[in-house]
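Standup notes
- DV: blocked on the single-chain target, sequence here:
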Amino acid sequence: MELHLHTPTTETKLTDAYARAFVNAVSLFAVSAYLTDWDNTLRLSKGCQHFRLIIGKDFGITRKAACEKVMKWLPAARKTQFMVADNILGFHPKAIFWQEGDGRCYALIGSSNLTRAAFEKNYEANIHTDITPSAFAAAKAWVKEIERKSVVVSEDWLATYQESPVQRPKSARERPGVSTATKVLPLPTPPDIAELLKARRKQLRRYASTQEPLLSLFRSCANGAIDSATFFQRLPDLWSWRVGNRLQGDGWERRGKGSDFHALCQSFLRILETDTADRDDVVVLEIDSLAAQGVETRRAFLSEMLCLAFPAEYPVLNRPVMDYMKAIRFRAPRGATEGGRYLDLAKKLRVSLLQNPRYPAKSLAELDTVIWRAYGKAAKQPA
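- DV (later): unblocked, structure below
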């Protein structure tokens, strides 16, 4: 264990400790109550598989300029890994947890936020210590719980965030249970919402009863037992409006008929078999990989398979959903990859339900049918 004690007149190795953590990590999770500056000289290891930087915004202390520096510092594939605890009251942690390539795990915990003052003029106390792999796993799960109530820091979020001209007021009052979200996402309420949700829940139950044979078809194509053309031919017998487990309208078949379903099936199964805590990152990696290969069905078809398999986590990527996000003016960070944009959409829709606990739809799969009705061109979805 190493103790870092800082004063305005003494130097510590706190900055060096942060730099070593970033450059050596294969997994790194950083949380800070406030962000008032960012060191662009930090270098995150290219071998870092899992990264999250989550900041707070209470009292407007976090600086927009600092957020913009982080957004420019992040490579395209990591644009959605910088988040703000927008739906948490009392977000005050100051810590980083990381694991290095040899499996050893560490924590740097103390009083320092990611601020210039913390590294220059403040009196700060921090501990840098080894932790066990089980303790690192617990920290990772804790960060994942925070992430559920966070949103990606994007240009649209910064536009609505109110930066305080002064530091935290001496007597600030907070009421527990009241959302402090910078941007509350409005949800559509069409008059037939109850009927829509009833029909959607029926489709989801039908998928649950047909999931295993459908996954068997995916596995056969993934391992080369059948080719892409055979997969496409057999698919309607296991997933279609006739079977009763298909959510979206037609359209993808025309462009997707000649798709590389072998690559898509492999990607989908890798996502399916990934641990819950790492699934979001794998979704981004697999979509970006399919995009690089030019696999057309990575959008509508893959997103529906993800929505059916994980109805609370991933949305169907369709035009009505995109029109909804455009209408509420809440887009992904500029420069994000295709996989990153999809995950950003998923996170925003998850938060929209979190912010509206009394809303009739309880999952992204259910919210999809409501958004379709409100923003789709057709008066009715496919029967």
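- Follow-up: The radius of gyration is 23 Å.
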